[in-house]
Each structure stands twice: as C-alpha cells, then as structure tokens.
Amino acid sequence: MQPATVLVLDFGAQYAQLIARRVREAQVFSEIIPSDTPVADIVARKPAALILSGGPSSVYAEGAPSVDPELFNVGIPVLGLCYGFQAMARALGGEVAPDGTREYGRTELTVSAEAGRLHQGLPGRHPVWMSHGDSVVRAPEGFTVTASSERAAVAAFEDLDRRLAGVQYHPEVGHSPHGQEVLRRFLRDVAGVSPSWTTASIIEDTVDAVRAQVGDGHAICALSGGVDSAVAAALVQRAIGDRLTCVFVDHGLLRTGEREQVERDFVAATGARLHTVDAADRFLGALAGVTEPEQKRKIIGREFIRVFENATAEVARAEHVGFLVQGTLYPDVVESGGGTGTATIKSHHNVGGLPDDIEFALVEPLRTLFKDEVRRVGAELGLPETIVGRQPFPGPGLGIRIIGEVTAGRLETLRAADAIAREELTSAGLDKAIWQCPVVLLADVRSVGVQGDGRSYGHPVVLRPVSSEDAMTADWTRLPYDVLERISTRITNEVAEVNRVVLDVTSKPPGTIEWE
Ligand code: XMP
Questions:
Q1: Cα–Cα distance between 164 and 75 in angstroms, integer?
Q2: Predicted confidence band at 100 (pLDDT cuts at 50, 70, 90)?
Q3: Could you give the count of Cα atoms lying within 13 Å of 287 in the half-sphere of its Cβ?
Q4: Has 225 been labeled as part of a binding site?
Q5: Residue nearest atom 7 in ligand 1 by C-alpha distance
Q6: Does the active-site annotation cover 170?
Q7: Is the pLDDT of residue 292 over 80?
Q8: Which residue's alpha carbon is at the smallest distance from atom 19 of ligand 1?
Q9: Strand order through the sheet with 5-10
Q10: CATH 3.40.50.620 location in the chain
Q11: Cα torsion for 272, 278, 280, 281, to the nearest 10°?
C-alpha cells in the first residue's frame, strides 16, 4: 500500500532533500518533485500535502519559477517555505516587494498575537534561519499574519479554511530550533496527516512491493560487503526467500574480516542463499604490472562484471533469473532526475557467456530511502552493526589504496595496517565521529628507519581520517594524539614492511578522500 505522501516541490534550493528528510523524521513519507510538475499530475498522485521549497533569491529574478495558482484550488494542504512562501503569496494575490529588504542568517522571529496553528505556544520571540532578498508586504486575502521579523512584516501566514500556510524562514535547518515542531504542526494540525511511516511500515510496504513485482520469479543480487547491497538483499530475501541468490565476488581487495562478515554474519542474520566466487587470483593477474589508477579501476570493474556474469550464468542454468537487485538510494534517484524505476537492463552478453536473451528487470527496494533510513531498516531486519554501521568503502577496494602496483604481498601489508587502525579507532569509540579513515600504502616509496637494532628501509602508510556529511566535501578529522600514537606504534611494531605512519591533513577540496 502506498503510504500517505507529502510532495516537496523543488524550486531549485539545496534544501529540498533536507525538507524531505525532516518530513520523514516526523514519520510521514515524502518525495521531491520538480516545481514545474503540472497540477493535474500532482493531483493524480493524491498527495496528503505539498511543501514548496526555497529557491532563487527573488521571485522577480529572470527565469524565476512561479506557481500555478490552480495548485491552491484543488483542496490539497500546502506549506510554502522561503521562496515558496513568496511564490505562494504572489500567486494568491498578496504583495511581494522587490525592495532589497535582505535578511540572511540567524534572525529573531516575533510571533503575532494571533499565532495560528504553527506558532501557537512557541516563545514570543525566537531565532529562525532566514535567507531572502524580497519580502511579502501584504498577505493574500483570507490569510492571517502570524509572525513578523525586523525586516519582514509578514514572516508567516495561515488560511486554515483552505489549509494553506507559509513561513519566510527555513524551518528545515538546525539553526531554526523550533523548525521541526513547526513542520510537525503543519503536517498534523493543518494537513491532518497522521505519523505512520515507520521502519516497520517501510519493511512491510517494500516486501509487499517486491512480492508483487517478482511474482514467482527468481532474482540475483551482487553483495559488495557494503550497507546498501546487504539491506537490499535482506529485504528481497524476506519477500521471496530462496528464489533470491546472492553472489559475493571476493576480488582479493577486501579488508580483514570482510568476507567473513558476508559469509557468516549476513547469512546468519538473513538465511539468504549465498554463492561466493573466489576470484582473487584472477584479479591479481589482471592487475599485474598496472600502476595507473584509472587503469586499475577499469580492470577491476571489467573483471567484476565478467565474474558476476559467469556466476549468474551458473545460477541461470538451474532456474530462470529475471530480476537483478540493486541498492540504488533516493539521493541518486533525485539527482538523476527521478523516474519511475521500471528500467530493464541487458547484460553485457559478449563478455560473460550469458545467453543472448537474458534481460533483467531491476528490483530497487531502497529507491525511496535515504542512507540513514537504510541503516535503520537493516538493523530492524536483524543485520549486525558491523554491516549496517559500516563506513563507506570503495568498490575497487584496497586496489586503489596501494599507490603503485597491487601485489599479494602488498595487500597483506596494507590489510594488516588497516586492521590495526580500524581496531584502535573502534576501541577509542571514534567510529561515529569519523566518516571513514582510509589507510594508504605508499608502495613505491621507501625511507630509512631504525627498528630494533638495525636500519630499516620500509614503506610509509598514510592515515586519512575524514569528517564529512556526504563525501562531496570533507575535512580532516582532528583525532586525539594518544589514538594516533597507539595506531602508529602498533603498525610500525606489528607490520614488518612499514616503518613510518604519516597523517594526511588535507581537506576536500583540494584533496580527494581516497589517494589512488
Ligand atoms: P573521493 O576519493 O572521490 O571519494 O573523495 C568520495 C567517496 O567515495 C568513495 N569511493 C568509492 N565508492 N566505488 C565506491 O563505491 C568507488 O569506485 C569509489 N571511489 C571512491 C570514497 O571511499 C569516499 O567515501
């Protein structure tokens, strides 16, 4: 069953995803759609409410998106935020002054005597986050002005008869401390939507949807060891049981313990049917003599597809596999322009020995979810913390963390150093504080050291602890010196080939997270 849905009309602000997440935190399902979606299409989706996001600084700017006034006549509750508030005011006959009354950043909001449903009982003056050039100087007919700020006489309004409301500020950001409460009140007290979207309901709805899609068919899923593929597979397994085959390609570029996590912990938690392919020698052979990072990536990608297709062909000999499970997440869907998710893909049948007629329909059970929601679903499905809490790890694995040629010996060295760093970070309780901490082996660099009684001529490893929200930008994490010291001492004592540990203190940009 489709849960009650709030649609966020994206006017081009960076805040649309944040708004959707805040609505979901209020336990109401929410999706983002382009602001120029025709009203008829919006109505056809039967949304429980609409939220108009922020956008360009002025409704008078050239090419600024507008709102079809018809949107307010179809009986759907609407909340306008920032630009959406002004666009709403204009569309309904209010007045927006292009007078350069700018307010940016933390601003004091004054709640009116008639505070309305959104601001009733909140402190009479409280901080909110503003970001606007123009301001609404006259509310449309039928609206009550419920708050103001120093430079915006109309900073919030409501028309409860028509279930329309708006605020000039950004309730979705953390700098508006009462913002989440205001959103919750809009959903509950203005739009009448009850909070019913929970982790349990997500699982139930997704399992139903997968059953409906796959019917009595068979599906296959490549596990990477990461969160997304594990949770996607666990959901599909719950829906269709043994008609799902999971394939795990061990390319020999994994970290210590990762294969066991998949083979032992994932299988124990889900009961999924797992087929492991031991392909380490094949990957090492293909990578022999290669030092250029892009070439390494290409080789690893190519070999992965070949091995996966061979495995699929094997499974397909026993049963007709019509579906391929993928762990696509909602931000990828939004960023690639939405779509309905009914794509089919043809396999690369010239490389893997698959029959020509194999065509998979994609099953994407995480298509509507953000990462933190995926983790919660995984935990509720009983996946262990080592899987659902796993930090990001690149698909090409340690292959891109050895600077120079990848060999079995170098992998062993890097694996040992990496395991020590991870162990110490975990026991210092720092896993949640960092985004990830690649350990990089500078295999082509040697330096002189003194270890024990003698001179050594070993390799450095680089610690790259980073803090980030989304990996697009990152800062280097200020790890406590005593933790760095323990990691350094242990690595240089316990890993024979390594005689120096260095710390990367570069932010991204200009550095990337991985070295390659
Ligand atoms: P960079 O190095 O571009 O990394 O700053 C950003 C984030 O992406 C991860 N990463 C990958 N993840 N396949 C993946 O699944 C890849 O090929 C890949 N390369 C980089 C990286 O670990 C970081 O979190």
A1: 9
A2: low
A3: 34
A4: yes
A5: 471
A6: yes
A7: yes
A8: 394
A9: 29-34, 5-10, 49-52, 78-81, 164-167, 156-159, 144-149, 103-111, 125-132
A10: 199-388
A11: -170
Q: Is the CB of 514 under 6 A from ligand 1?
A: yes
pLDDT, residue 197, reads 97
How many Å separate Cα 427 from the centre of its chain?
Answer: 26
Looking at the whole model, is its pTM more than 0.85? yes
| Pocket of ligand 1 contains residue 471 by CB under 6 Å | yes
CATH class of the domain comprising 5-190: alpha beta
Q: Which atom of ligand 1 is nearest to the CA of 474?
A: 5
Give me the catalytic one of 31, 172, 258, 373. 172
Q: Is 196 annotated as a binding residue?
A: no
pLDDT per position as a tens digit, 365-394: 999 999 999 999 999 999 999 999 999 999
Which DSSP category does 175 fall into?
Answer: T
Q: Catalytic: which of 119, 132, 170, 178?
A: 170
In the chain, CATH 3.30.300.10 covers 407-503
Distance between CA atoms of residues 363 and 344, nearest Å: 9
What is the number of the ligand 1 atom nearest to the C-alpha of 508? 5
Which tokens sit at 410?
Answer: 């170098």
Q: Which of 514, 515, 516 to mutate to test the pocket of ligand 1 (most atoms within 8 A of CB)?
A: 514
Model confidence pLDDT, tens digit, residues 227-263 = 999 999 999 999 999 999 999 999 999 999 999 999 9
What is the number of residues in the chain?
A: 516
Classify residue 388 as exposed, middle or buried by CB count within 10 Å of its CB (0-12, 13-18, 19+): buried
Q: Is 196 in the pocket of ligand 1 (CB under 6 A)?
A: no
Q: Tell me: domain 199-388, CATH 3.40.50.620, correct?
A: yes
**Whether the CB of 434 sits within 6 Å of ligand 1:** no
The reply to whether 172 belongs to the active site is yes
Of 55, 51, 64, 62, nearest in space to 83 by CA: 55
What is the second-level CATH architecture of the domain 407-503? 2-Layer Sandwich (3.30)
> Is 511 labeled as ligand-binding?
no
User: Using CA atoms, how far apart are residues 219 and 104, in angstroms rounded to an integer?
Assistant: 52
| Residue 44: alpha-carbon gap to chain centroid | 28
Whole-number Å distance between alpha carbons of 272 and 263:
10
DSSP three-state, residue 340: coil
Cα distance between residue 310 and residue 138, in whole Å: 67
Residue nearest to atom 10 of ligand 1 (CA): 394
